[in-house]
Amino acid sequence: ISDASGTEGDTITFTVTLSPSRNGYVWVNYYSTPLYGERVSAGSGDFERVYGQLTFKPGETEKTITVALTDDSKSESTEAFGLRLYSEAQAQVADREGIGTIIDND
Known about the structure:
Elements: E1 4-7, E2 11-17, E3 26-34, E4 51-56, E5 62-68, E6 79-89, E7 97-103
Parallel strand pairs: 1-7
Antiparallel strand pairs: 2-5, 3-4, 3-6, 6-7
């Protein structure tokens, strides 16, 4: 999964890549979550809480997940959240977390 960044009030898009392509179907689940640790974590109200499942059909190698960012009137530093992949079927996940960076617009 790629990292992505965007400004408050916009959307950001993560790209999930399957390599190499498969002859059968591949599934992977995902969810967005606050990110704690080295970066300043975005609160759960700073981004859309998304979850679901991606299905790669035979021969497909790329899917996207779009997350809406909340526009607020607070002046804050750049924040981050995670988009995590889990419970894959018919493939192995090399990078389980994309980092979403939210750039303040105030």
